C-alpha cells in the first residue's frame, strides 16, 4: 500500500468522490467533486473508476510528501503545482519519488485542482460515499466530514500505471468569463418580462460569498411576480432567486429543499465550468432545452470513452 504524508492543508482541501445518492429523502445532501469533469479526467489518467476518491484542492495551500515511489495524476485548475520546487502542469499523471514534495500554492488559472491516486484514495464509505460534507459531518478520511489536515496520511492500494497526459484538444476550457447553459424551470413564467430579458442578456459577477453550498451572482435584480411557494426538492445546479433578486447557483452541498423561485438549473457541464470560476469573473446564462443538453452531455462523455 502506497501513501502520502500531508504537510500542508486548509479547510478547502477535501476528499471527494462522485457524491452521495439515494439519501435526500433523509435530508442528506449529495456532496462530491464540484468540477466532476476534472475529477473524471484525473481518474481516467490512472485507469480508475470515474468516481474514485480524489483530493479536491480549492485555491491552493496543499502539500504532501511521498512515503514511497508512486504515480499520481493532477487535473483541473493550475494552482502552481510544484515537485520539489519544479513546476508541474495539470492534465497529466506523473511520478513522485520517495521523499519528494508536491505542493499546490495558488491559482494561476481556475480555482480547483484534483489529485488522484491509482484505484482512488482509501476512505470509509458513509451512506455509500466518502464525499466530505463538513456541515453534515459525513465522509472524509475519518467518516465525519473533516477537511484534510496536516499530519494525516493518504493511502491507496491500486497498481501504478504508466505516465500519460490529456491531449490539449480534450481539455476543458477553464472559466474566465463564460456562458452557462440553463434548462428553464417551472417558475420561469412567474418572473417579470424585463427580468427575464436581463437574466439572459446581461452579465452577472461571481460574488466572494460562495462555498460548496452555492455561489451568489451579482447583477440585475430579478423580480418574481408569482404566488408564495411551498418548499420543494432542489436539484443540483438550481438557480434560485431570493427576495433581493440576486440569483444563487446551488451546488453539491446545497440544502435538500427550498422555497425560493428558480429560473431553472444549470447543465452538468456548465456546473463544472462554474466550479473553476474565481470571484469577480463574469458569466451569462443561455437558455437551452433539455434534449439539447442531454445530447451535449452524451457527446462529452464519449471523450472519456475515447481517451
From TrEMBL:
Domain Carboxyltransferase positions: 25-304
Organism: Pseudomonas fontis
Keyword set, alphabetical order: ATP-binding, Hydrolase, Nucleotide-binding
SMART domains: AHS2
UniProt cross-references to PANTHER family, sorted A to Z: 5-OXOPROLINASE SUBUNIT C (PTHR43309), CARBOXYLTRANSFERASE DOMAIN-CONTAINING PROTEIN (PTHR43309:SF4)
Stored InterPro entries: CT_A_B, Cyclophilin-like_dom_sf, PxpC
Protein's UniProt name: Biotin-dependent carboxyltransferase family protein
Pfam short name (any one): CT_A_B
SUPFAM superfamilies xrefs: Cyclophilin-like (SSF50891)
Signal peptide: none
